[in-house]
Amino acid sequence: MPIFSFLLFVFISSFTPGPNNFLAMTYANQHGLKRSMQFCFGVAFGFFILTSLCSFFNIVLIKILPIIEFPLKILGVAYMLYLALKILTSKTSINPDEKYNKNLFTVGIFLQFINPKGILFGLTVVSTFILPYYNSYSSYLLFSLFLGVVGLMSTFSWTLFGSMFQKLLLKHTKSFNILMAVLLVFSALSIIIN
Predict the structure, then answer these.
(1) Fewest Cβ atoms closer than 10 Å to its Cβ: which of 73, 112, 135, 162?
(2) For the residues of 3-34, what is the DSSP string, one character each?
(3) DSSP secondary structure string for all residues of 61-76
């Protein structure tokens, strides 16, 4: 396996802006670093599951991808636009005693299954870098675990940014929410255009 190309693809794809990273930063701004870590771990676990499924069912997915690609794109774009609207209309809350009605771990897991960037990344990395060079189930699981850890690192870095600049972002909540919403809309539009 061309390890340099693999690592370059994985890290660039994981750390560039997308739904996971935008939401990680937004949750850190709204809920603080500690609470947002649930989302990061959910993303990592969800991505581990997703890449494991891509590894084990890659041949089937490739055959049905033309059938599911368009509905998946529409669902993913609709969800991203919904998230943009929620961010745009949200109010900042950093009260640690406040009751939360969302399990951010679960949100992080389920986001992976409608995140077009994550799904296409999983299919690409598995079919390009893993399946041609490895054929054991243990290697598929190890690569999936590695990709989950990279997902944790990328969302954590965006969460850390959101948390570090929380005071600044609190002063400019509306502007920050508008920027995050616009970036999510841009991500959604780029999926439609591509």
Answers:
(1) 135
(2) HHHHHHHHHHHHHSSSHHHHHHHHHHHHH-HH
(3) HHHHHHHHHHHHHHHH
Place of tokens 């969460």: 159
pLDDT of amino acid 141:
93
Confidence at residue 188, expressed as pLDDT on a 0 to 100 scale: 73
Q: Which amino acid is at 121?
A: F
- For residues 64 and 144, what is the distance between their CA atoms, to the nearest angstrom? 22
DSSP tag of 96: T
In 3D space, the residue among 184, 172, 174 whose CA is nearest the CA of residue 83 turns out to be 184
User: Residue 52, Cβ neighbours under 10 Å: how many?
Assistant: 20
Looking at the chain, how many residues does it have? 194
How many structural domains is the chain composed of?
Answer: 1
**What range does the domain containing 177 cover?**
3-193
Residue 159 and residue 38 in contact, taking contact as beta carbons nearer than 8 Å:
no
Whole-model pTM? 0.73
Q: Tokens for 189?
A: 């539009």
Q: How far apart are CA 157 and CA 152, in angstroms?
A: 8
- For residue 81 the two structure tokens come to 């636009």
Confidence (pLDDT) at 96: 47
Measured CA to CA, the distance from residue 63 to residue 82 in angstroms comes to 30
Query: In this structure, how many other beta carbons lie within 10 angstroms of the beta carbon of residue 134?
Result: 15
